[in-house]
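Structure (tokenized):
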């Protein structure tokens, strides 16, 4: 058991060495271990927003397009009898510049749900919000559109401290986790909608564990193209195998990817929506009438979605003695899975073969000693590999910082064209069925015949 662990450690270490030796060429297609991952703390520097309803923060986040528009999950809004968004709810957006700096609170003056939003299956669970954040200061944000570009995904939640009073709420540091584990088939089994729309939905079992050991799904998903990242999708709903967010055996969380809804959004907003794309040959879905297929089957569990702040479990619900952790650390880039932990059996020592009987004892001890030595050697190799990797990473970060400093102009936390260093480009979707390339971009004209 232990030996196997050492081996996997060494494999990881060696892969990293190989990656180092190869320099930072493009991301290898196979084997995620080769990919050096951007830390989740990189979420600092990204603008984000939370939807407020009637003066209270919801658990819903807004994928910002600009200082004027953003996407929110349609099931975060209330609707009038005629099917339009109920604007008597006093919707507002609170914007952050990076993780904890506030850009302020702004009234939503228009909200439009997707024309095929289905409140039962949560198909096409997107809505477009218009607001005016920033008066004269204009900025734009980029939507991560091409999944093939991404080396990893970050699931992210922003939150505000409950101030209670009338003062402006304060941002809490964002929570973020790297996607871990492939749960596609389980997610598809739990949700026919997901099974039928895998290009436009993501699924994860990862959740924030609250102090009351209840699950809180992350609000957004970001596509990571090291050293860049861009918001790519919004939390839609969860299928829970169990009774509630506090009492379950499994939870599948589904996210609506925005790329197929950019053309629709551009039409609704009469505005340009910008994509973040690294592959210059990538062509986004530019059909404004796109909608998901709605399958007949039902999810195999309890469905919750939209604003979960009302569902936010009170600490009294299920007292669990093992809840030592509060919330997952935003600084951690480690991968946490709530699902796989149960499958690892208690580890036995490498000398475990000695317990087979008196007459085989000596032989067992010999094998045990050999295994122990092999294990130790492998451990030493792993440690050396890890240290080498650390040094490499440190140097890389230094380089990256230098690069950022060089390119970061006056815009605080604003993503700008120069920020993308590795052949990444951003192209605009102008809402007219064309993909346009904004000015002053070195590579980008190639690959777009418009
Ligand atoms: C989208 O639907 C509208 C209304 O039905 C139609 O006029 C338009 O041609 C469609 N556009 C595309 C690209 O299919």
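Design, position by position:
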């Amino acid at each position: 058991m232990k030996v196997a662990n050492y081996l996997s450690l060494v494999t990881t270490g060696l892969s990293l060495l190989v990656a180092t030796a190869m320099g930072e060429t493009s991301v290898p297609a196979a084997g995620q271990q080769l990919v050096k991952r951007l830390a989740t703390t990189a979420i600092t520097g990204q603008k984000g927003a939370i939807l407020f309803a009637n003066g209270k923060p919801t658990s819903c986040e807004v994928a910002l397009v600009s200082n004027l528009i953003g996407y929110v999950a349609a099931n975060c809004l209330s609707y009038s009898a005629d099917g339009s968004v109920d604007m008597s709810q006093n919707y507002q957006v609170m914007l952050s510049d990076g993780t904890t700096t506030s850009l302020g609170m702004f009234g939503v003056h228009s909200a439009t749900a997707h024309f095929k939003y289905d409140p039962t299956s949560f198909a096409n669970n997107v809505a477009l919000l218009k607001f005016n954040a920033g008066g004269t200061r204009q900025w734009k944000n980029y939507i991560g559109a091409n999944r093939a570009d991404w080396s990893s995904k970050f699931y992210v939640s922003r939150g505000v401290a409950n101030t209670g009073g009338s003062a402006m709420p304060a941002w809490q540091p964002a929570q973020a986790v790297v996607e871990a584990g492939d749960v596609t088939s389980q997610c598809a089994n739990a949700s026919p909608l997901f099974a039928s729309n895998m290009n436009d939905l993501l699924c994860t079992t990862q959740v924030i564990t609250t102090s009351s050991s209840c699950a809180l799904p992350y609000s957004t998903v970001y596509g990571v193209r090291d050293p860049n990242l861009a918001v790519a999708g919004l939390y839609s709903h969860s299928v829970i195998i169990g009774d509630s967010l506090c009492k379950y055996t499994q939870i599948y969380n589904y996210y609506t990817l925005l790329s197929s809804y950019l053309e629709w959004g551009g039409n609704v907003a009469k505005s340009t929506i910008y994509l973040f794309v690294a592959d210059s040959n990538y062509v986004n879905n530019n059909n404004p009438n796109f909608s998901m297929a709605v399958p007949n089957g039902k999810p195999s569990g309890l469905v919750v979605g939209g604003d979960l702040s009302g569902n936010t479990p009170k600490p009294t619900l299920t007292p669990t003695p093992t809840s030592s952790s509060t919330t997952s650390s935003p600084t951690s880039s480690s991968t946490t899975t709530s699902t796989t932990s149960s499958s690892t059996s208690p580890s036995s020592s490498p000398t475990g073969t000695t317990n087979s009987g008196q007459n085989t004892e000596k032989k067992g001890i010999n094998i045990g000693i050999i295994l122990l030595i092999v294990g130790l050697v492998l451990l030493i190799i792993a440690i050396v590999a890890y240290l080498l990797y650390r040094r490499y990473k440190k140097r890389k970060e230094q380089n990256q910082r230098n690069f950022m400093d060089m390119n970061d102009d006056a815009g605080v936390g604003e993503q700008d064209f120069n920020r993308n260093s590795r052949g990444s480009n951003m192209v605009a979707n102008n809402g007219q069925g064309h993909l346009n390339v904004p000015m002053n971009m070195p590579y980008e004209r190639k690959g777009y015949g418009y």
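Reviewer-requested clarification: Residues 361-407 form the longest helix (47 residues). Residues 287-289 surround 2-acetamido-2-deoxy-beta-D-glucopyranose (CB under 6 Å).
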